[in-house]
Design goal:
60 residues, mainly alpha, 1 helix, 0% strand
Length: 60
């Protein structure tokens, strides 16, 4: 009985193309920007509400 040939293994590469790297970096930048906007907006709203509770600096 003849032996069968071993199957060829598909090439596997961990390298990425420049376009893929740019897309990944753009996604990171967009995500970080969204988080920063959320944090800054949340801090501004919190400070506004704290000032309202304390009567504000202008006596409002």
């Amino acid at each position: 009985m003849p032996r069968a040939e071993a199957p060829d293994v598909a090439p596997f590469s961990l390298a990425e193309f420049p376009a893929e790297r740019d897309e990944r970096r753009a996604a990171y930048a967009l995500g970080i920007t969204a988080v920063l906007i959320t944090v800054i907006t949340g801090a501004a709203v919190t400070l506004r509400d704290l000032r309202r509770r304390r009567g504000g600096e202008r006596g409002v």
